[in-house]
Amino acid sequence: MPDSTSKKPPRPKVARQPMPKQPAEVRIDNFDEVPYGYTPQLAVTEALRCLLCKKPRCVAGCPVNIDIAGFIKLIQEGKFKEAARKIKEENALPAICGRVCPQEDQCEKVCVLGVKGEPVAIGRLERFVADYERAHGDVRLPKCAPPTGRKVAVIGAGPAGLTVAGDLVLLGHKVTIFEALHKPGGVLMYGIPQFRLPKEIVEAEVSYLTQLGVELVTDFVVGKLDSVDELLAQGFDAVFIGTGAGLPMFMDIPGENLVGVYSANEYLTRSNLMKAYLFPEYDTPTIRRKTVVVVGGGNVAMDAARTARRLGARVTIVYRRSRAEMPARIEEVEHAEQEGIRFELLTNPTRILGDDQKRVVGIECLRMKLGEPDESGRRRPLPVDGSEFFIDVDTVVMAIGNRPNPLVPQTTSGLEVSRWGTIVADDQTMQTSKPGVFAGGDIVSGAATVILAMGQAKIAAKAIHEYLNTLPPGKDRQG
């Protein structure tokens, strides 16, 4: 009989399971999703790497507090649909988050296995179970609380708006989302390319919310049609503003008004939302060019560059810092390199040149060196005197960040706004300076990640629910 006090045998070491994907030489000619996702066997093998910690640090690293150990244990047992439902207790958009969230800087960053090796592929497992549930046609709707009679208006159908709507409808409130564009999803739909986040995935996640009872009104520009004040006057008890940061930024250098200079917003919207890459099947002509420079080093820059590559261009990414400082996900940078995109690092544009028809023909750049860290914590880029050089191009895409669109803040009375144009909100409740009005996502934080926007939205949903419970029965917010 074995000694009951003996230690358990050591757990066999299994390497982190790679996710199958399209070869680079194939995918540069199509807009199909690059990774294929895990098979059930790969998913179980990867899940078995998880130690199922009693006090999992990964949950603290997740902005929406998913029970990570709980859903991974279900995968270990082969209960894939149950694992998807476990995730949906906290996150209504698992198929999206499993694809675009920077897990390497959040939940996976604090995984115990990552101390001496590679962390559990939490994001890939999240994607797998969400896809499995959808593919098997067994998406079940949780039971909503009894109707409260309270109405909430959500402005913007992006990650924040969709999340707050999903949480509030489960609590029994009537929720209406007002979306300015003709399709819901916000940056998920117009900003992230098809090859990274297929539009049918976004549509399926939105459909899940509408089946729960969320009402969706598209082609409705709040601030032009009705204002926040008018929505409150029409009987909405609370309003959540989740309009994101869709106003593009430029460098203010000579030549930015030439034909052939685009913001990444326009470039990606034409390709994604309008399906310009399928012209002439879809009416919007695609932006096909021979040589493209994308300015920036974030995920949006990678998306724009990889889109241009698929449209047949030779593409160069110009970034003023080194690779170590690039804010883009490591995986996205690697995919861009594999697809033949050239990187000009420690390089900054100084002017864009045009011909006599005002069309882009080149871009002048300056070499940079890194100095001391700036307020972002990254080393500040400094110009190298006399290092100017030219790149011959016919298109320049600016992907250097976005600011909030001022329309809603400017048309809402009593709403405090920061000097950066973001809405000021209490980070514990996401309550704004205006009673009954809450905000979250990029309109509050500035351009950030999908999952951080969702995390703020969950905080807001809880606070909105508590606020609605303080209103006298049968009376509106103004009493």
Characterise this structure.
- The chain starts with 23 loop residues before the first helix and ends in a 9-residue tail after the last helix.
- The chain folds into 3 domains: 24-135, Fumarate Reductase Iron-sulfur Protein, Chain B, domain 2 (Orthogonal Bundle); 151-246 and 403-470, FAD/NAD(P)-binding domain (3-Layer(bba) Sandwich), CATH 3.50.50.60; 250-400, FAD/NAD(P)-binding domain (3-Layer(bba) Sandwich).
- The longest helix has 21 residues, at 450-470.
- Helix 6 (94-100) runs antiparallel to helix 7 and helix 12 crosses helix 13.
- Mean pLDDT is 93; it is low at 1-6.
- It has 17 helices and 16 strands.
- The chain has 479 residues and is α/β, with parallel strands linked by helices.
